[in-house]
Amino acid sequence: MKNERLKYLLFILSVLILGILSRKISGIPLFVGDILYAVLIYFGFRFLIMDTKKSTSFLMSLLFCFGIEILQLVQIDWLIAIRKTTLGHYILGQGFLWSDLICYFFGSFMAYFFDKLLLSSRID
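The structure corresponding to this sequence follows.
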């Protein structure tokens, strides 16, 4: 199990770097960052709660991503102030977009599919 946790940590770090680079390099479409965000959240859940089924991690990552996106509809002063910071912007985003929900679904599903087929030695 320790070996699997290390694999997830390496994937988290790799996806985190790719996600930041996708926002810094011009020419990369913005939706790539949204997909990578969902991938990061999925692997984060796998890292934190490895005892759950992969399908549960998939659903939890979707709920988390969708929750963050819906939270962007809330315009409270202190929340806006957090979103104006670099880290707050990366985590909480700026404005609600329906297309982001589609990106989150594809990103979570791609991570789940990748995890199910290639990463884990356990079957569930």
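Residues 2-119 form one domain.
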